[in-house]
Design brief:
The complex is a heterodimer of chains A (about 325) and B (about 290).
Chain A: H1 5-10, H2 13-23, H3 25-48, H4 61-64, H5 71-77, H6 82-99, H7 102-113, H8 117-128, H9 135-145, H10 151-158, H11 170-198, H12 202-210, H13 215-240, H14 247-253, H15 259-262, H16 265-275, H17 279-308
Helix pairs in contact in A: 5-17, 6-11, 7-11, 8-11, 9-14, 11-13, 13-17, 14-16, 16-17
Chain B: H1 7-39, H2 42-47, H3 61-68, H4 70-102, H5 109-121, H6 126-135, H7 143-146, H8 153-164, H9 168-176, H10 181-192, H11 194-210, H12 213-218, H13 227-235, H14 252-292
Classes of the chains: A mainly alpha (about 325), B mainly alpha (about 290).
Amino acid sequence: MAQPARTSIKRSIGTILYRDFAKNKLIYLMALPVMAYYIIFHYGPMYGLVIAFKYFAPAKGILGSPWAGVYWFREFFNSYFIERLIKNTLLINVLNLLFSFPAPIILALLLNELRSERYKRSVQTITYLPHFISLVVICGMIHDFTSRDGIINDLVVFFGGERSTMLLNPGLFRPIYIVSEIWQGVGWGSIIYLAALSSIDPELYQAAVIDGANRWKKIWHITLPGIMPTIVILLILRVGSMMSIGHEKIILLYNASIYDTADVISSFVYRKGLLESNYSYSTAVGLFNSAINFMLVILANWLSRRATDHSLW
Amino acid sequence: MQIKRSLGEFLFDHANVLFLLGLMLVTLYPLVHVLFASVSAPSRLISHQGLLLLPLGFELGSYGLVFKNPMIVRGYLNTMIIVLAGTTTNLVMTSLGAYVLSRRDVLWKKLMMMVIVFTMFFSGGIIPTYLLVRNLEMTNTLYALFIPTAISTYNLIIMRTAFMGVPYSLEESARIDGAKDFTILFRIMIPLSLPVIAVMVLFYGVGHWNSWFSAMIYLRKRELYPLQLILREILISSDTTQMMTDVGGMDKEPVGQTVKYATIIVATLPVLSIYPFLQKYFVKGIMIGALKG
């Protein structure tokens, strides 16, 4: 520090880089495998997206395959499936947003109103449970319960209905999907809101009581505003992933006779790409999907920053 | 201070308790149904209709068939290997990354952070990833199941937040004593962030235990199949024939049913019996992730 000012001004970029490296070389050594992982397994596939613009043949490699321009995109936009795929993807997501997004918020509010701490903890432990059951088992149970002689059909018959294999009925796919989604996720989803609830200053409630507020008023004027930032952030994330419904659950549940309501973009990409080895086409469809997603995240974030002051960045 | 409840509040409190009781029942019933069905007598189960409030008889024969199935035993073993190797890889890589990103005055940190966070919003998608893994000749090896997913960026950020919460004075005094970065990471950061590490073990471990999709696309050799992929054959494709070569023709269908249920129990019980003990940790972990993420 006692050095004359002249030298510190003259420090070149090279010196800065060198000093930083000399001081932090162990840090950079640690960063090496991590950055290598991200470059190879995240940016590698991003480079692989090039095949969406090529006639990719595995034997020729990415560089050796001839260019196709936007051929595959045009193919997709003109295909018979595009309308159905976009409709299904959006519809399942919108329904999911409508029903399974508010469910954990409501559960958290109800749990918060319980007077017995022990009862609250039991409800929590039990509702977290389905989160830990694997998707394969959940879907296996759905297959079994909705089958012709499954338990749900027993109940349908009891109330005077007819037996049917429910997963063969296109009209029932979305309800089955959404209900099972809520069943599995409501408890787990409520954790984050309970965390937000616990950070609300108790003095606010005391002040409200002194001002004569009843319980509804406390919920409306203190609790809800208190968890609003959390709700907004999670909503942005949800809207941002509007077009990216996971393919895993769809693949485990659907079959050719309900593609009309069940086939979504990601399951289509999986079928075209991995089952039919139509790599360039499916990559183009996948890229179209991720591009829309990316724009949705940015849009949702921008909207929320303007409307509520809460945003991801 | 004792506040009198109005009639409305009184009714609300009771309705709330009842509603949540109903929710617990609805959550538990499907599992209880599976459990009861798995120990029921196959012939009675097949003619039974409606809710199962008690097991129909008590037989463990279906569990015998499950444990005698070489594919299930093999799948269990493979899953154990994947969970162990995968979670270890995840933890090492995630803590290295979290340590780097939690440092002050590292010149390239901002750039590294941007490179990493960008992958949360944009990815190459499954086809390019699949082709990459194939080009690296990782298909048909268990590496394909945990190397491409070595770090979850979301978990990395949770762990970084935890490391940033460790008091700087501890690190400083260790440095004066001559400790280098590796010592600081393994002797200070990790031991002081144990609750978060526990959450990571749970998240990553359960993730590996439940994963099936990458195994389905990367593995052709059946002897490498993890448990979930075997389960998929049994539960989704309803293929229980292999397990019942020594069950007589007439009994195949009823026994097939109970075997399915027993398989679900065998595959689900290990995870379900550990999570309640880790509950207070994962709640904390999610809070850290939520507040700072």
